[in-house]
Amino acid sequence: MADITHLPMEQLQDLECCLDSNPPWAEAILLAFQNYILMLGTSVMIPSWIVHAMGGSDGDKARVIQTLLFVAGVNTLLQTLFGTRLPTVVGGGSSAYIYPIAYIITDSSLQQISDPNERFIQTMRAIQGALIVASSIQIILGYSQIWGLFSRFFSPLGMAPVVGLVGLGLFQRGFPVLGDCVEIGIPMLLLVIGLSQYLKHVRPFRDIPIFERFPVLICVPIVWIYAVILTASGAYRHKPDTTQNSCRTDRANLISTAPWFMFPYPFQWGPPTFSAGHSFAMMSAVIVSMVESTGAYMAASRLAIATPPPAYVLSRGIGWQGIGVLLDGLYGSVTGSTVSVENVGLLGLTRVGSRRVVQISSGFMIFFSILGKFGAVFASIPFPIFAALYCILFGLVASIGISFLQFTNLNSMRNLIIIGLTLFLGISVPQFFNQYWTPSRHGLVHTNAGWFNAFLNTLFSSPPTVGLIVAVLLDNTLEVERSKKDRGMPWWVKFRTFKGDNRNEEFYTLPFNLNRFFPPT
C-alpha cells in the first residue's frame, strides 16, 4: 500500500468550476434554473402524498407545495451564506419524515374529526408543532458543537459506505418509479446519458459545452412535450389508474388550483398544537435528516473541489438546518428540510460546483412559490421523468462516497469487512423494516406507544443512519490504534479543525467578515 500520509487532497477530474469560482452570469442563471427544476421532483411528490393522506383538497396541495418551495428557497440561501457554505440545495422532500407524519395523521384524536377540511387544518397544526419542537435537536447539536465532536469518530473508511448509502438508499425512487411509465422514463434516461456523456464534447455554440452543462434543461422539455402528445392522443385512455397518474400530464391538477399570487407567511394554517408524543416521533426524522445531510455535505465538498467540512463547519451547517426545520414548522410546509441528494449529484453531472449558482436557484424557488400559476406549470412534470434523472444522480452520489476509499487500504481484511457489512446492513435492515409498511400497520415496531413505534421505525428505515451506526461502531472498536493509516486518518485528521488546512479558510469563511464575531472553535 502507498504511504497515504503524504497524499495530497485528490481532486476529481474534469470539474471545471469549484466552490469559490463563478461561471458567467448567463450560464449561472441557466444552471440555477436547472437546479430549481430538479428539486421539484420530491418537493412535489412527497407533500402531495402527505396532503392526500391528510384528506386535503387539490387547493390545499398547491398551497402546501408553494409554501414548501418558499421555505426551501430561504433555507438554501441561509445554508449557502451562513451554514456549511457548500453549494447544496436544502429541500423539503425527505422521506425520513413519512413515518412520524403518518403517525400524527392516524392519531385517533384527529381521525375523530368528521369534516375533512377541519381535519386537514388540525393535522397540519399538529405537524407544525412537532416540527417546531423537534427542530431543537439539530439546533442544539449544531450550535453546541456536539455534532462536530461526534464527527471525530468519522474516517474515510466510515464515510465511504455512509455517503454511498445516501445515494444507494434512494433506489426505490429510481427505476421502480421510472417503470410506472416506461414510455417516457426510458427515453428520458437514454437521452440524458447520451447528451451528458456521449455528446459532452460537442459545442455547437461558442465554447460552452451545452449538452454537458444543461442536460436537464434540454431533456426535460423534450420528453415532457412527448408526454403531452401521448396524453392528448389518448394513449392512456383505457389504462389503469396507476398508469394514468404516472404518465398523464393533466392529472396533477396543480395549475388549475394554484393561486396566481400567494405570499406564504408564518402560522398561515393557524396556531400550532403541541403533543409530547408527536414531538418525540418527529425527533427521529430530524436525527435521520441530520445523518443524511452530513453524508450529502461530504459528497458536495468533493464535487465542489473543497476540503471535507471541518467539525466546526459541519456543526454550523446542522445548526442552520435546524433553523430551517423551525421555519418549516412556523410556515407549515408539512415536512422538514434536508439536503437535496439529487441536486448534489447534479454538481457532478454538470461539472459545476458553484455556490453562486445554488444561491440564484434559491431565488427561483422563492419567485415561483409566490407566483403560483407559473410555478405550478413546472411542478406538473410527470414524476417518471424525474425518476430517470434520479437513476443517474443518486448513482453518482453513491460513487462519490466510494471514492473516499482511495485514502484507505483496500488490502486490509479489517477494512473490507467494515465496508461490506456497512453497505449490506445499510441496505438490508431498512428493506426489512420497510416491507412491514402498510396503511394499517405503520412499520415493523408495533407497540401500544405510537411515538415509540414511529421513532424506531424511522431510524432503522434509513440506510445512511443504519450505515453510520454500523460503520462508526466497527471502525472505532476494531484494532483502532494499529489501523490508523489503513483507515485513512493521516489524510483525514488535518481537515477536522478549521485551521488544520489553509484551504478551509478559503472555502468556509463566513461572508461580510462575520468570522470576527463568530470565530471558528
Automatic annotation (TrEMBL):
Subcellular localization: Membrane
Family annotation (InterPro entries): NCS2
Chief localisation class: membrane
GO cellular component terms attached to this protein's record: membrane
Pfam families (alphabetical): Xan_ur_permease
Domain of life: Eukaryota
Coiled coil regions in record: none
Topology within the bilayer: Multi-pass membrane protein
Keywords noted in UniProt: Membrane, Transmembrane, Transmembrane helix
Segments crossing the lipid bilayer: 29-52, 64-82, 88-105, 126-147, 153-171, 178-199, 214-236, 357-379, 385-404, 416-434, 454-474
GO MF entries: transmembrane transporter activity
Family membership noted in the UniProt record: Belongs to the nucleobase:cation symporter-2 (NCS2) (TC 2.A.40) family.
UniProt-recorded name of the protein: Nucleobase-ascorbate transporter 1
Source organism (scientific name): Phaseolus vulgaris (Kidney bean)
